[in-house]
Structures are given as structure tokens and as C-alpha cells.
């Protein structure tokens, strides 16, 4: 039979790249059990211990898995009372049923294989190791970041390079025909991708990059600047996603910040679409200096049936003890879920400001339930800070606007968003942000499932 294993790990994903908060609940294996053939509704399911369902598929047949998806969505789902009641027996696809059941505000609930989910959260990826945003006006794709020691990095590609062709597909081909997956091919070791590009000097080049495994370190860059107004040290960190290895990934930067006694911090979440809430809480704990230990960081509220699962996450004693007076978050529409939770959770306690553009807007989270080698992640609760503030479906608005400047590397004080943040710390005012038609026309590829948060090629 199936067994629930509660790891008490919270995840958050995003909408455009799928954000969610997940309590990692695993229904272990495909087991037996006899099916009566009758439809079981969510009203028949009792509420178990927090994080554990009291039911599972009768078997791993597609029919029983579809029924399980229907039961989950009419039970633990935050909007279970608002969604329709289709005849699930007429469906032959779990994902199609899920898509039809999702409430209007929900652009995030999904089903994915456990193998893919586990690999992404462990930071163990196979591919090129780069993120792209597409410039439809100029028919190219701009590399926004590259993971260190990934195949793309080893091949010499860099942030700001403009990809003009992928395995013979032009960018217009890919966007007009939604042929991104066909162009990049499967994420399999040994698969070669031919890229034509313009480097940061405008020089054309061609490179064959072979997909391989690489470690996705969430800290892409960090630096330390000096506030020319008050002489304080300013820490900067680019954090790409809240994966499971947040302690080791953050260790070097946090140690440097502590050694240099920084008191102002710029956290760059412009590409961060979510991940483990433990990672967000770890950052919050470590910039508190320990003064907020025991206070409420965030509260989780479920639907009325599961109100007994409502709970709060409290600040814990930090390891690094970096005492911060003021924090600036760099944000875009890709900033989502755990990133937004971190911002909202810190606001009651520290001088917090946003520079960039409005965030994605996902003030809700999900559990993750494993079944038959799959994971279903339904929106299951809303998120509030210690002042009961939440509901930011329209996103969190910036104090100062600024645009991504791919002509400079992340961590460079001259990069447009970083420069705007430093200026705000020094003057308390918003500087005019460098903007070009290229930067204003960049869009992200909209993908499905877990690839919405880990939007990496």
C-alpha cells in the first residue's frame, strides 16, 4: 500500500515559472487495494495529521490516478468549494483534468514526475545551464545568466550574449510556432545544441554545446560595496532559486558579509521564481542578527475543512548573525512565490524597499503529494505576514523602477538595477534608470509545470 512520509519542507513556486509552497509529502509506491468502482467525493475523506492525506489512489492505473487528482482538488485545494464538478470518469488525462479544475486565480497547480521534481530541487540538472529572455523586436534571445561550470559556461558563453539561432531554428521560428522544445531538444547527456550568437561586442560566433549534468548553485554572484553617504558596507547577492542546498550555497556570501560587517543589503531576486520556504526563512533568520527569534515570520491559512492545519513559521536563531539595518530587493515580474514571501515576511521587521518592477503576485502556496511516481502540487493555503498582510495577487510594487541591464554582469555596481539600489541607499531617492528598446522588449518563455520556476535550458 501507499505510505505518507512527511518531511516538513515547504516549497514555493511561481505562476510564470510556477511558484509554489510545498510541504514535501510523499505517497511512496504503487500499491494494491481493490476498487469498488464507485465515485468517492472529498466529503468522504477525513482530515489527517498536518501534511498528510488520509487517502491515495486505489492503484496506479490511469483511471485511479485521475480519480485521485479529482479527489485532491475537491478536498485540500484552497478553492475546493468554488471549482466545478466535472465528470472525471470522462477524462483520459490527469493534466487536462487539473487544468479544467483550476480556479480562476490559480495559474500554478501542476502535476510533474517525482524524478524531475527531485532533480530540480537538489540542483542536479542536465542541460546547457543558461536562462534566456526573448527579444522579439530584434529576433534574438539574450542570455540573462549562466550557471558556473555548466556546459554553457565551459563553452565560453556569457550573460548578455544574443542567441540568433538554435539548431537551425531562428528565434522567430521558435516564438511563432512554440518550437522551443524542438529547437533545444531533450535534456539528455550527450545531446549537442548548435548556437549562433552575437557576443557583447557584437561579434558573431557559432558554438556547439553538449548537454551534460551540472550543479545549479543558487548564488550566481555576490559583492560588497561602500555607501558613499554614510560609509556603511553594502552587501549584494544574486539569488536565483530557493533550492534544497541553500545553506551551502549561501555560506560563502554570508561569511563574507559577516566578516566585512555589512549593515545594508541588496538581495537580487529578479530571476527568482520561488522554491523552498526553508531557504527564504534561512535568509530572513540570518539577516536579523537574532533580534527577531520567536517572532512570526509567516502564517499559513487553509480552506475551512483543513483549518486545523493552519500554522505559523517563526524566526529562528541565525547561524551567520549578519545584522542588517536596511534591505533592498531587486525585483521583476519573474520574482515570485518564496521570493515574495521573503519580502512580505520581512516588511514588519526591517526597513525594506523594492527596486525594479512589480513582482509576479503569488500570495498562496501548495503541498506536494507523491503518488505513482508523480507529484501533484495543488494550491492549498494563503500566506500572511505577522501583520496579517497578504493577498498580493497583483504583485508587490517597487519603490523605484529600474530595468535589467544585460550589458553588465550581475554583481557589477554599474548594472542598472544594482546602481539604482545603491543610489537609493545613498540618497533615498530614485535615480533615472538606463533603459533601452532591447531591455524593454525582453520577455520570458512561458513554460508549464515545474519548468515555470526552473526556466533553464
Automatic annotation (TrEMBL):
GO biological process, alphabetically ordered: proteolysis; signal transduction
Ranges for domain PDZ: 123-175
Top-level lineage group: Bacteria
Pfam families: PDZ_6 (PF17820), Pept_S41_N (PF18294), Peptidase_S41 (PF03572)
Gene Ontology CC terms: outer membrane-bounded periplasmic space
Molecular function per GO: endopeptidase activity; serine-type peptidase activity
Protein name from the UniProt record: Peptidase S41
Organism: Denitrovibrio acetiphilus (strain DSM 12809 / NBRC 114555 / N2460)
